[in-house]
Specification:
By secondary structure, the chain is α/β, with parallel strands linked by helices. It has one domain: Aldolase class I (TIM Barrel), CATH 3.20.20.70. It has helices at 7-12, 53-66, 93-102, 117-123, 137-144, 160-172, 200-207, 216-220, 226-235, 262-278, and strands at residues 29-31, 34-36, 42-46, 70-72, 106-110, 126-129, 150-153, 178-182, 212-214, 240-244. Residues 292-297 have low confidence and may be disordered. Bound molecules: phosphoenolpyruvate and manganese (II) ion. Residues 48, 74, 78, 110, 130-132, 153, 183, 218 line the site of phosphoenolpyruvate (PEP).
């Protein structure tokens, strides 16, 4: 057996830099006002996809009112069917960035391929690697060369070890700002869209110093199940949540059935505050930029 910290161990373990053996202390990654990995919870919320200027502004206002820290919104959507809405692409970037700025939110969006990496890295605060791209090694290597937080989602049929090995690609490149995200895995059950792997949360905390959040929306597939799964995740040690919220989910162009109405997100945040306290965690609601003005300034992209 190789000893901790030796070259042999480096070669033996595909997730050496991510491991507790290498770094016993929990990593804390600052995302705006939140120290992710500490006792503070990171809350990311927003629509599956940016659909229009009005839609993203309405959503930003709603999730900010409830106290979210980061606005999510897909510009490039990995859809199962090529006939489904694929996202607005870079056309939606202005809307997205301006909506977040206006409401004092940070931004996260998925980077689906290398060609958009530079522009997205320039304008967005956190880059998301989607489930389907967890093992896109050229993309992971390119993200490793940036000084930018990465939200790495677990592959829908990947083990926790494979998730950590994917994170290792980013760390080994020099970027240590990685937040992992459990988003449900494929199992034989067919009630939920995916099975939320709550066990991954304590397992990641045992094996790795990286923080991990949970996405209760993509595993549930139905908005009725989002709040209970979110609560289970926080109880099991998640460092935060990423939740889909839409001002009119029935009209959403993607993932409407699993998107919360704004009032449901408000309810989730209210309930989460008490739960966090009971568990020795903190939900510091985002109160920044209270006097948001109501114009829509255009960023020069
Ligand atoms: C998403 O978060 O928008 C998404 C597509 O999720 P996943 O990659 O987990 O399917
Ligand atoms: Mn979605």
């Amino acid at each position: 057996m190789a000893k901790n910290g030796t070259k042999e161990m480096e070669a033996e373990s595909p997730f050496y830099l991510c491991s507790k053996a290498h770094k016993p202390d929990q990593s804390i990654i600052q995302i705006g006002p939140v120290y992710v990995g500490s006792d503070e919870l990171l809350i990311i919320a927003g629509p599956c996809a940016v659909e229009s200027e009005v839609q993203i502004h309405e959503t930003a206002a709603a999730v900010k009112r409830a106290g979210a820290h980061v606005l999510r919104g897909g510009l490039f959507k990995p859809r199962t069917s090529p006939y489904s809405f694929q996202g607005l692409g870079l056309e939606g970037l202005n809307f997205f960035v301006n909506a977040a700025k206006e409401h004092g939110l940070l931004t996260v969006t998925e980077v689906m391929d290398l060609t958009h990496l530079d522009i997205l890295a320039q304008h967005v605060d956190i880059l998301q690697v989607g489930s389907r791209n967890m093992q896109n090694y050229p993309l992971l290597k390119a993200l490793g060369a940036l000084d930018k937080p990465v939200l790495l989602k677990r592959g829908l049929s990947s083990t926790v070890e494979e998730l950590l090995a994917a994170a290792e690609y980013i760390l080994v490149g020099g970027n240590h700002k990685v937040v992992l995200c459990e988003r449900g895995i494929r199992t034989f059950q067919n009630h939920f869209r995916f099975t939320p792997d709550i066990s991954a949360l304590p397992l990641v905390h045992e094996l790795s110093h990286l923080p991990i959040i949970l996405d209760p929306s993509h595993c549930s597939g139905r908005r009725e199940w989002v709040i209970p799964v979110a609560k289970a995740a926080i109880a099991a040690g998640a460092d935060g949540l990423m939740v889909e919220v839409h001002p009119a989910p029935d009209k959403a162009l993607s993932d409407g059935p699993q998107s919360l109405f704004p009032h449901q997100f408000q309810q989730l945040m209210d309930e989460m505050e008490g739960l966090a306290k009971a568990l020795g965690r903190k939900l510091k609601r985002n109160k920044g930029n209270e006097k948001a003005h109501h114009t829509m300034p255009q960023a020069n992209l």
